[in-house]
Automatic annotation (TrEMBL):
Compositional bias (Gly residues): 431-440
Domain PAS: 127-198
Any coiled-coil regions, as ranges: none
NCBIfam families linked to this entry: GGDEF, sensory_box
Name of the protein this chain belongs to: Diguanylate cyclase
Organism whose genome encodes this protein: Nocardia speluncae
Pfam families for the chain: GGDEF, PAS_4
Length: 440
């Protein structure tokens, strides 16, 4: 049966043939292997989860005339290709359980076919040996722990993730390699929710400590397993290193909130800052916004070209950002030649005057680019307002209104608008301004 997994089937067939050391009397039927692969792949994605697909595959393998030695160990890494690097933790967990069942099914079928009657203890030992093959050869991290969080067993993949020998993990608490910030969440989800209910699975994506002192990211599915008669309950954890995926998500998050040209935060990031300031503000907290717009920037684009204009914007962004360094201000580019500086609490008119003067002063020297010496100035509309219960867009609109008032006064001006204060007090007057005087 030709399918999307045909290449995997051929790889599996070749690997199984090689375990015999010579051509078997009954060559592996690729048609059979294709159906087994299809069954396993189907079990990875369907609900409810058909874990017995693994046992069926193991039993079918045992029915061939291949030697027992290394059949399961050979099959595990080949079949792991049914998962991919970006698969979610649930798919990884299912694959691990399917392969464990494959080893179990293989062992049971071989015992039924060839082994003499045996004690239950010996049969269980052989099944444990089959599980051990899957456990040791799995490409994902697998750990077994007691219900208090002490590791009873860990495979090489988990040891490699942490950077220690597997034996060093035995007997330690899971909290020893969990990041301090994640420990409370682990306790709540696993030991206060999963363990008391004695059933189910929880999923975690958390930081994981490495032997070299660094932290990576790992995604785990942790399942409560009820022990058989005479044996304690335990937790089965299956996970994978997702450090690179986490880094990529963080980079995408950063790119979505930063201006590609200047590297400054963009409008989206600014609004999130404002929303956070509004959410955390007390009743008397005031914030300030300086809306900066370059004067006659269109002339630079028209006269020298957009390439030069982009270099000017980059230089302006750097100067504005550096001018308020140390004042705990946040500078963003929100579009075109418009920039906004957020001044967090505590804010009064004098502080806003200082910020506005610094921003204008940052552009007092010409910008040199492409052999040209360009004079650049800006107008600033500033606003000081109580923030509790406000709206981010409304605050930006207020600063924008002040900007138009500043532009009407000429180049390199700033205008400060102080919105009413809830306690009825009057704002302090502003004595200074831009190079030709500020206004309130």
């Amino acid at each position: 049966m030709e399918s999307e997994h045909s290449e995997l089937v051929r790889t599996w067939s070749a690997a199984l043939q090689a375990t015999s050391g010579s051509a078997p009397s009954d060559p592996i039927n690729e048609h059979l292997l294709s159906w087994l692969v299809h069954d396993l792949a189907h079990a990875l994605t369907t609900t409810p989860f058909d874990v017995d697909a693994g046992a069926r595959a193991g039993a079918a393998l045992a029915a061939t005339d291949l030697p027992v030695t290394d059949v399961v160990a050979t099959s595990v890494p080949v079949l792991w290709a049914l998962t991919g690097p970006g698969d979610d933790p649930e798919t990884v967990r299912r694959m691990s359980l399917l392969l464990a069942k494959l080893g179990e099914g293989f062992g049971i079928r071989r015992q039924m076919m060839f082994a003499p009657p045996d004690s239950p203890g010996a049969a269980a030992q052989r099944m444990d040996e089959r599980f051990r093959v899957v456990f040791d050869n799995a490409a994902v991290a697998i750990a077994i722990g007691d219900t208090n969080g002490v590791l009873l067993n860990a495979n090489q993949a988990l040891a490699d993730m942490i950077g220690v020998p597997a034996d060093d993990l035995l007997g330690i608490s899971v909290y020893e390699f969990a990041h301090p910030e994640d420990r409370d969440r682990i306790r709540r989800l696993v030991y206060e929710r999963l363990v008391p209910h004695k059933q189910g699975t929880v999923k975690l994506e958390q930081q994981i400590g490495r032997a070299d002192g660094s932290y990576g990211w790992a995604a785990f599915s942790i399942t409560f397993v009820q022990g058989q008669v005479g044996h304690p309950d335990y937790l089965l954890a299956v996970g994978e290193d997702v450090t690179e995926q986490h880094r990529m998500r963080e980079e995408l998050h950063r790119q979505a909130r930063h201006d590609l040209l200047t590297g400054l935060p963009n409008r989206r990031q600014l609004l999130e800052w404002l929303d956070a300031a509004i959410r955390d503000a007390g009743p008397r907290d005031r914030i300030g916004l300086c809306f900066v717009d370059l004067d006659r920037f269109k002339y630079i684009n028209d006269r020298y070209g957009h390439g030069t204009g982009d270099k000017v914007l980059t230089a302006v962004a750097s100067r504005l950002n550096n001018s308020v360094a140390g004042l705990d201000c946040l500078v963003a580019r929100i579009g075109g030649d418009e920039f906004v500086t957020l001044v967090p609490p505590p804010v009064d008119n004098e502080r806003m005057a200082e910020v506005a003067e610094r921003l204008l002063g940052a552009l007092s020297e010409p910008i040199l680019t492409g052999g040209n010496q360009l004079d650049v100035s800006a107008s600033i509309g500033a606003v000081v307002t109580t923030v509790e219960g406000g709206q981010a867009e409304a605050l930006l609109d207020a600063a924008d209104t002040g900007l138009y008032r500043a532009k009407n006064r000429g180049k390199a001006q700033w205008v400060l608008h102080t919105m009413p204060v809830d306690d009825g007090s009057e704002p302090d007057p502003v004595d200074g301004g831009g190079p030709t005087g500020g206004a309130r």
